[in-house]
Target: Lipoprotein
Amino acid sequence: MILRFTPFCACALLMACSSGNNAAVPGDQSDNQPYAGISEHETLHFTGTEPFWGGEAKGSTLTYSTPEWQDGETITVSRFGGRGGLSLSGRLEGMELDMMVTPGTCSDGMSGRTYPFTVTLKLAAETLYGCAWTDSEPFEGPETP
Model:
């Protein structure tokens, strides 16, 4: 069976964080407000390794790049703030792109940096993992690894 990850799935995953009394769910279980830790006016920078990928998102735009595609492509995304984080969804070269950003210490394992957010990126059938930061919540570690 092939499971497809759609914007609905991203919303459902983040909304699931606000239902029930599951002690393993992050955040305050009595908080029913959408995640507001990353403003739509703030630039979210993200990076991943193996394969290397990255980019940034602000408002309703997201730019995705790779070493082979350094200029990347900018797409329109929809934003959804669940209780446990932020979801960004759109289409990149005809493929569904769904990114979940959640607060939590993250390391890329290579740069010596520590990031304040983790990223799970679903691009078509591929799932990629990475880290993220904003100007108000920067990474810690060397500026140039």
Notes: The CA atoms of residues 117 and 127 lie 17 Å apart. The two ends are 41 Å apart (CA to CA). Residues 37-134 form one domain. Strands lie at 44-48, 53-58, 61-66, 69-81, 86-92, 95-106, 115-123, 126-134.
